[in-house]
User: Fold Broad specificity phosphatase PhoE from Paraburkholderia sartisoli.
Amino acid sequence: MQTRLLLISHPATRAMRVGAFPADDPLDPRALDALRAWHGRGLIAAQGAQAAQVFRSAATCVRETAEALGLEAQIVPALSDADAGEWRGRRLHELAAAQPEALAAWIRSPDAAPPAGESFRAVLARVGAWLDALAPSSSASLSPAGGMQVIALTHAVVMRAALIHVLGAPAESSGRIEIAPLSIVELRRSREGAWTWRPGAS
Assistant:
């Protein structure tokens, strides 16, 4: 069975706008306004109305995104944002002054992690494992062509990891992929299990 997966990034949070690591921030009025004006809102609402499988991370901003889109979503740990550990809620410019070497290593290397946090390579491993294990449920809807449609509400780092996994690119290329808030990435898996990226297809 073919699978069509739409990965969606949540709106910009206040932490993102001020250059801080996430600390389970809720959506503020500015983010909610952006979500209401989002051009992809109708597309995702239509896909959700077809009873596609819908997954999300457990983050507050993602839960509120799902609620605003009228989607009931199952929490999947693999879709979680990268764990910022001791850097949760801290601004980049503060860390650049307080821990310059650690911050530089985190920016440069996919193997570096915040203290008590998670590296990009660890995110890549869990996202890749989830993609490879993605399977239809008994209630999954089928497209007219007989494929399964899936929606995943998540974070930019997860979407970068998904693209790198699908393309077989090196983890070091993560910094060359920019995922804006409220972006859609469409991936498709063939009956044989091979994933492809379809830019602009959604």
About this structure: The chain has one domain: 3-83+118-197. The mean pLDDT is 91.
